[in-house]
From TrEMBL:
SMART domains: HDc. The keyword Transferase applies. InterPro entries: HD/PDEase_dom (IPR003607), HD_domain (IPR006674), HD_GYP_dom (IPR037522), HDIG_dom (IPR006675). Residues 113-309 form the HD-GYP domain. GO terms for molecular function: kinase activity. This is Histidine kinase. Signal peptide: none annotated.
Length: 367
């Protein structure tokens, strides 16, 4: 299977991985022949990349690190609980969150089990889901990325549960933001942006009053937009005053935000998002944390078509967790000529050869 920007997929291509709604139900089955209409509809629904069949990629398999069943159950709980909070706020009722700890702890435990049982790098780009709300999927993705980073850093089980709860609930304050502002497709006014910024403090106030929710988890909601140099919000805290958990969530939050498809901008690929994070090292993010995060994610997802520094073209076959920027690739073109017989090389064994461009990046930038 080959990962392709949906705007460059031609009608007649066959879907290689099914596409689901956020309840885990199949919307389009593997093997379906894609039409112009179906491709347009998928793009409108927020799907930016899909896997299609390509005979040159026979034997290539994609592993995401977290199972479909775990994600399906997590999304069901997140939707129900967040919507319940939003309804209580709208009706100006006292918030009832007695069951928060149990429900969300179950999600965190399931995600942790999947991550610990899978030593592969994470790639959520390969998850073909259509979601009702960005907040729900963002909360889940940030939790997965944050926990993978925390496991890589060696946090103990108690800390991992606290971190996971903080990550899962970091945006709960957005349930207090008017929907028309939260989902506005265009540029926010200064006043609207200030209202959006208020979600950090709102989330803290919700969580600190919730029974059985750790105050550390509440501080994750409060501090996930703080930055090392004091330019973040809501308090403009500097490095030494920001809790370690919030520093992890901040990285995962930005990474998922820029790799997700939004109405007002196209998504970045993982390597582009990683470059963005590195550009903030020292000022916004801790370098050691970014380096650890790089080891947990698939910088170049399996199935992605890439151009190499020696002018060969290849498709990513397998990840190297030891050096995520140098995966195993399948050479499909040399000297501008398509090969009739492809072959695989491990870029870990040829460190002088690097990936310089991706086909998906080029396709996305022209649409």
């Amino acid at each position: 299977m080959r990962l392709v920007a949906i705007r460059s997929v031609t009608a007649g291509s066959k879907l290689a991985k099914p596409i689901y709604n956020d309840n885990g139900q199949v919307l389009l089955y593997e093997g379906v022949v894609l039409t112009e209409r179906s491709l347009t509809r998928l793009y409108e629904l927020g799907i930016s990349f899909i896997y299609i069949y390509d005979e040159r990629t026979e034997g290539i398999e994609v592993e995401t690190g977290v199972t479909l069943e775990t994600k399906r159950k997590a999304m069901k709980t997140i939707k129900a609980e967040f919507q319940g909070i939003a309804n209580q706020i709208k009706l100006k009722k006292s918030l009832n969150m007695d069951h928060f700890n149990k429900d969300f702890a179950t999600i965190v435990s399931s995600i942790l089990a999947d991550i610990k049982n899978n030593d592969k790098t994470l790639t959520l780009l390969s998850d073909m889901f259509v979601y009702d709300s960005y907040i729900f999927t963002h909360s889940l993705n940030v939790t997965i990325y944050t926990l993978a980073l925390a496991v890589e850093l060696g946090f103990n089980d108690k800390q991992l549960m606290e971190i996971g709860m903080g990550a899962l609930l970091h945006d709960i304050g957005k349930m207090t933001i008017p929907v028309e502002i939260l989902n506005k497709p265009g540029r926010l006014t200064d006043e609207e942006f200030k209202i959006i910024q208020g979600h950090s403090m709102a989330g803290f106030e919700i969580l600190r009053k919730a029974p059985n929710i750790s105050l550390l988890s509440a501080h994750c909601a409060l501090q996930h937009h703080e930055r090392l140099d004091g330019t973040g919000y809501p308090r403009g805290l500097r490095s030494e005053d920001i809790h370690d958990y919030a520093k992890l969530i901040a990285i995962a939050d930005v990474f998922d935000a820029v790799t997700s498809n939004r109405v007002y901008r196209k998504p970045m690929l993982p390597h582009e998002a990683l470059e963005l994070l590195y550009s903030g090292v020292g000022n916004q993010f801790d370098q050691e944390l970014i380096q650890a995060f790089r080891r947990t994610i698939a910088v170049y997802p399996v199935g992605l078509t890439v151009s190499l520094s020696d002018d060969r073209m290849a498709i990513v076959v397998k990840q190297n967790k030891q050096l995520s920027t140098h995966p195993v690739v399948r050479i499909i073109k040399e000297n501008g000529v398509e090969l009739t017989e492809t072959y695989d090389i491990d870029l870990m064994d040829q460190l002088s050869v690097t990936i310089v461009e991706t086909e998906a990046t080029l396709a996305a930038s022209t649409t």
